[in-house]
Amino acid sequence: MRLFSTMSAPKLKSISQLPLPPSSHILSHQLNPDPFFSSPKVWFEKLRTNPTMQRRARLMPPSAHFCYVSPLPIPFPYRVVAPDPPQEGDERGAYVERWLANQEPLEPIGVHTEDSALGRWSNDTRDGRRELLGIAPAGLRDCLPGLDIGDAFEIIGTPSLSDCRTPADTAAKENSARQDLVDVLSGQTSLFSVPANGEDSNSSGYAPWSLRYSGHQFGVWAGQLGDGRAISIRRAVRRH
């Protein structure tokens, strides 16, 4: 006797089209953000004027659990080259702010559609080299069964534990899904939503965020040890 499952395979979507869970299941909506970036909307506005606040190591207020922060796919320490000759009346701090703002993901990519809860954002200066090195097939199978990775396994080779994915309809679609995955996980593209119509609550938008962490050192409570453990990008984690 052969039994057939009545459940159909999930419809595959690229990483930028994966749906967000309800607000009650989004961890950053249940925690206290850094007051300086009290919401995704405030965070996005300050990327244009005061981006160093998300790049510098600093202590956050005791009530804060995390800070909104976007990945910056350039080597650290940053090579901020001052103009030569210097601009008259230009302070060094103001120049650094403008330089960083030029690296931030402030430009929308494409047109936001109803198929995705988030928009794609990047910057022309973020045109660095990025390469897909590997994919964990078990994680893909168990955690993200609906993620379309396109022709990624054809590029990097198919691991022995890989599940069988139905190939995309066209080569263009395969390449698009794979490139979308690479761009998001490398930090080249950021996924977030900025509330409109005057909405400004923490639960009305979403942006990448970095969790504050604290702990003990040498047998005593050391308080805040850093301003970010990792950056959460959708359902994937990239080292900060």
Write the layout of secondary structure elements.
Blueprint: H1 40-47, E1 66-68, H2 92-101, E2 107-109, E3 119-122, H3 137-143, H4 152-156, H5 171-185, E4 190-192, E5 209-211, E6 213-217, E7 220-226, E8 230-233, E9 236-239
What does this molecule look like?
The longest helix has 15 residues, at 171-185. This protein has 240 residues and is α+β, with helices and mostly antiparallel strands. The protein is globular. The chain has five helices and nine strands. 25% of the residues are buried.
Strand content: 15-25%
Say how many strands there are. Answer: 9
Largest sheet: 4 strands, antiparallel
Considering DSSP H and I runs of 4 or more, what fraction of the residues is helical? 10-25%
The side-by-side strand order for the widest beta sheet comes to: 1-5-8-9
- Give the helices and strands as they follow along the chain: HEHEEHHHEEEEEE
Number of helices, where a helix is a run of at least 4 consecutive DSSP H or I residues? 5
Oligomeric state of the chains present here: single chain
What is the averaged pLDDT score?
Answer: 79
Shape descriptor: globular
As residue ranges, the low-confidence spans are: 1-6, 234-240
Distance between termini?
52 Å
Helix and strand content put the structural class at alpha+beta
Task: Return Rg in Å.
Answer: 20 Å
